[in-house]
Design goal:
Layout lengths: L3 E4 L5 E4 L11 E5 L8 E13 L2 E4 L3 E2 L4 E2 L6 E5 L4 E6 L2 E9 L3 E29 L14 E3 L4 E3 L8 E6 L3 E13 L1 H5 L5 E29 L16 H15 L2 E3 L6 E3 L2 E2 L6 H13 L4 H13 L23 H17 L1 H4 L3 H13 L4 E3 L5 E3 L12 E2 L2 E2 L6 E2 H21 L2 H22 E2 L4 E2 L2 E2 L4 E2 L8 H4 L7 H14 L1 E2 L2 E3 L16 H8 L4 E2 L3 H12 L1 H15 L14 E2 L7 E2 L3 E2 H37 L1
Antiparallel strand pairs: 1-2, 2-3, 3-4, 4-5, 4-11, 6-7, 8-9, 9-10, 10-11, 11-16, 12-13, 13-14, 14-16, 15-16, 17-18, 19-34, 20-21, 22-23, 24-27, 25-26, 27-28, 29-30, 30-31, 32-33
Helix pairs in contact: 2-15, 3-4, 3-5, 3-15, 5-8, 7-8, 8-9, 11-13, 13-14, 13-15, 14-15
Length: 648
């Protein structure tokens, strides 16, 4: 299924299919995110444009029903352009270009129409069909909806439900609104049925705007809800320059995609990162993994710093929450890796722009490590120096699928990815403490560092298999071949040798590497699931048991650099560009999907636009392709100088 997505600075969005037939309950022309709403508000399914001319009518929208699609507006469609997006139609002699625009700084949808060739007497009727529901819910005919239209400063106002904001709607130039309320019943969403969810709802139409058409006619229909973005000077993100046009084109596309995930709260202007569209919100872990690619590599350092500050302000019991709320009290911290990824983000920023910028978060780095050492429920540094995390029945890492409240892939108490992140964070913290003369911190943590260095490999390294155990329960290792071990070879401070990394990569590449990312489990394992299909429980079983994740290509390429050298990493980046460029025109156009099936043909699944998928691809392209370009430029200067010397 191909989809399009457009967003604004408030995190509001519109999403649909090129043919305009909604396939998901999330498809619609306006979904708003604003303070005071527990979840985003899905406002409008679509407008049905009805063109009446010479005794004939042309209807341009389309919806699924039990056994049919109606109307069949796509039959009049001649072209679709995801930029905008815009549609072109031919209805007899009349030509129409229809373009959507989300106002960048307010919850406002503008639909622009340009008609040409309309004969005298032609008429347009614009009928909005409202949902007015939470984005994850469905709407049904009910007696509580207020179907009336009220006079407004411009056009009319709809107050569909008491607890929802009013909707202002008007046409420019002016148009007459005809009240004619009705319910469009039992609209179906096939994708929801495939995912095991309820798949029918009722849409409400309060009436229609009537517009006379003649020759060349331009008009705009506007819907506005409360909510405006704060006045913030913000530099648009862009990719750096590359010598290779193919790499440049790919990086520019990813930079545009990256911009869709960053938003500002309408109240207070706090920036954040939407983890994925259409159903994710603001996740601490996803935000911190994505920051380097989304913002560092696109030159938006000040915005990234504000997001780091937001994460700090939401800490609970000293740790960064996984679900970021307005305050620590309404944030859910049940993920230890979010705090360790925070330290990694600070470390990355320190490396890129210097200690002067990173200094404001260094006390938080110390505090997070001390919180882990002193212990918080289910989290502590064990006697062997490793980080022990046991939040059962809840997971504490990114492998967070649950069925009936229990983790599908238990990670307790010693998970390899958490301990690789902990190893890197501790080494970084100790280096900072040494440079800053933090004697007390050095005294507390130096013995732990020694234990961790001695025991990491003893606990995780599987000599006969040639790779790292995925986790260890304290008695025996879990020998499942999974990609979590890549962090031990990809972070700046590494607990394994290059030789071990080469052996590990050989197994990971052979069993887990696919064109679109890394499988989460080797195909030969009894728990392996090659397709992520079915109802919620079936999909949760597959989510981390074979499903392919694009974001893991980030640590994979970094591990390749460590084990095999920069040239091998550049070859991996070239493969990423080649493999993913067609995907940007598939699934959600211009975006990268959350996950793919583990089995060929690697069908894209999950959220069709995912922040860390985009971010990690962009990060490794910027890191390794730029290095290649810089080396080429330096080599060119050397060759030029040699040639000149020989001539003289």
């Amino acid at each position: 299924m191909r989809e399009w997505l457009t967003t604004n600075r408030l995190g509001s969005f519109a999403m649909g299919t090129p043919g305009r037939t909604p396939e998901r309950k999330y498809h619609g022309l306006l979904t708003v995110r604003r303070a005071g709403l527990a979840e985003p508000l899905h406002v409008l399914s679509d407008l049905n444009e009805v063109i009446a001319v010479g005794g004939k009518t042309f209807e341009l929208a389309s919806w699924h029903y039990e056994s049919t699609q109606h109307p069949r507006g796509f039959e009049h469609q001649k072209a679709f352009n995801p930029a905008g997006p815009s549609w072109q139609y031919e209805c007899g002699e009349i030509r129409l270009i229809r373009t959507l625009e989300l106002a960048p700084d307010r919850n406002e949808l503008r639909i622009h129409y340009h008609f040409s060739g309309a004969p005298h007497g032609a008429e347009l009727r614009l009928s909005p069909l409202f949902t007015a529901r939470g984005v994850h819910q469905l709407a049904y005919e009910n007696p509580f909806l207020d179907g009336r239209s009220y006079p407004a400063e411009r056009g009319v106002q709809f107050r569909l439900y008491r607890d929802l904001p009013a909707i202002d709607c008007w046409c420019e130039p002016g148009a007459e609104f005809e009240p004619a309320g009705y319910w469009n019943r039992k609209v179906k969403y096939p994708e929801e049925a495939r995912r095991g969810y309820p798949d029918q709802e009722d849409l409400f139409c309060p009436g229609y705007f009537r517009v006379a058409l003649q020759g060349d006619t331009r008009l705009t229909l506007t819907l506005r809800l409360p909510g405006e973005a704060p006045e913030i000077a913000e530099t648009p993100g862009q990719a750096p320059e590359f010598a290779d046009p193919a790499v440049q084109d790919f990086a520019d596309a990813l930079a545009r995609a990256a911009g869709q995930f960053v938003y500002h709260e309408a109240a207070g202007g706090k920036p954040g990162v939407i983890a994925g569209f259409p159903w994710f919100g603001e996740w601490g872990r996803d935000t911190l993994i994505a920051l380097p690619g989304l913002l560092f590599d696109t030159g938006r350092i000040e915005l990234a710093a504000a997001i780091l500050d937001r994460c700090v302000a939401c800490r609970r019991d000293g740790l960064i929450p996984n679900l970021l709320g307005d305050t620590p009290e309404n944030s859910d911290w049940f993920s230890v890796d979010a705090s360790l990824w925070f330290i990694r983000a600070v470390q990355d920023l320190h490396t890129r722009v210097g200690k002067a910028v990173a200094a404001r978060w260094l006390p938080v780095v110390y505090d997070i490590l001390d919180t882990l050492r002193d212990g918080t429920p289910g989290v502590r540094v064990a006697d062997n120096g490793l980080l022990s995390v046991d939040l059962r029945p809840r997971p504490g890492s990114w492998m967070d699928a649950q069925i009936d409240g229990h983790a599908v892939t238990p990670r307790a108490p010693f998970a390899v990815e958490l301990n690789a992140l902990f190893f890197n964070a501790l080494q970084y913290g100790l280096r900072l403490a040494h440079q800053g003369g933090e004697a007390a911190f050095l005294d507390r943590w130096s013995p732990v560092k020694a234990l961790l260095e001695d025991n990491f490999q003893q606990v995780f390294w599987l000599e006969d298999a040639g790779y790292l155990a995925d986790c260890h329960d304290g008695d025996q290792p879990d020998t499942s071949l999974r990609p979590n071990q890549l962090l031990a070879a990809s972070l700046p401070f590494k607990p394994i040798s290059r030789q071990q990394a080469r052996r590990m990569l050989e197994a990971v590449t052979r069993e887990l590497r696919t064109p679109f990312g890394l499988r989460t489990l080797a195909p030969g394992h009894e728990l392996y699931r090659g397709q992520i299909i079915g109802n919620q429980a079936e999909r949760d079983r597959a989510y981390h048991n074979g499903t392919v994740w694009p974001w893991l290509l980030g640590p994979y390429v970094d591990a390749v650099e460590y084990a095999l050298g920069e040239q091998a990493a550049r070859q991996e980046v070239a493969r990423i560009v080649q493999d993913f460029r067609p995907h940007l025109d598939d699934a959600c156009i211009g975006q990268v999907s959350e996950i793919f099936d583990g089995d060929a043909p690697f069908t894209p699944r999950g959220a069709p636009a995912q922040a860390w998928s985009v971010a990690e691809l962009l990060r490794v392209v910027c890191r390794h392709a730029r290095r290649s370009d810089e080396r080429s430029r330096r080599a060119g200067k050397v060759l030029s100088g040699s040639s000149g010397a020989a001539t003289r």
